[in-house]
Design a protein that fits this description.
about 200 residues; alpha+beta
């Protein structure tokens, strides 16, 4: 190898080394930022669902990125919602970490709720945007434990979810008098579910 070739090799290895060090530095900053964000979120006990504050007693499971809460108007026993902690209107606005955590949380919550209610299946549903039936501008997954015969036709569940979303929107927007579950009822249900994760 000529001296010129050696110099080029050493320069390109040096450039590669510098590039690798920059990648590690950037990666390290991203990891530290993620850790800081997780620490801040895990110490926070306040929850929002769109523009609404959620009483912490309604929440039964939380991670640094997501939380699960009982439903104001459940379609079936065990119908709960899993939401990102950050107020995010649309599914495509979630970060990769939030998306992953949201689905992993829904999987964990669904498994425990299905067993608790002696169900045999789950329906997981997202209504992403107003034309899809989303009434609260905050991503949320409906988790519904299912049993044979709970709906005459299986797909009626989606119509029922859509109808409940519309009713919720009317209640929140128009503040009509409606009989909703009380905070005590929801807190009691959340307490039962919370015990499913205390081990």
């Amino acid at each position: 190898m000529s001296k010129k070739e050696e110099r080029c090799n050493s320069d390109s290895n040096g450039d590669a080394g510098v590039a690798e060090m920059l990648k590690l530095q950037i990666s390290g900053k991203a990891i530290l930022s993620s850790i800081r964000c997780r620490r801040e979120m895990s110490t926070s006990s306040s929850y929002v669902f769109g523009p609404y504050k959620i009483d912490p007693r309604e929440v039964f499971y939380a991670t640094p990125f997501s939380y699960a809460m009982v439903n104001l108007r459940p379609l079936l026993p065990g119908h709960v919602l899993v939401c990102p902690r950050r107020l995010v209107p649309r599914f495509t606005d979630l970060t990769a970490d939030e998306t992953s955590d949201l689905w992993l949380t829904a999987q964990k919550v669904g498994s425990r709720i299905e067993t608790f209610h002696k169900a045999s299946s789950l329906t997981l549903a997202i209504q992403d945007g107003p034309q899809a039936g989303q009434s609260v501008p905050h991503v949320h997954i409906h988790v519904l434990p299912r049993k044979g015969g709970d709906f005459e036709k299986n797909d009626e569940i989606y119509d029922a979810i859509d109808e409940k979303e519309k009713e919720l929107k009317q209640k929140l927007d128009l503040d009509k008098d409606r009989v909703d579950r009380s905070l005590d009822e929801m807190a009691d249900e959340a307490s039962q579910y919370r015990a499913l994760f205390d081990h």
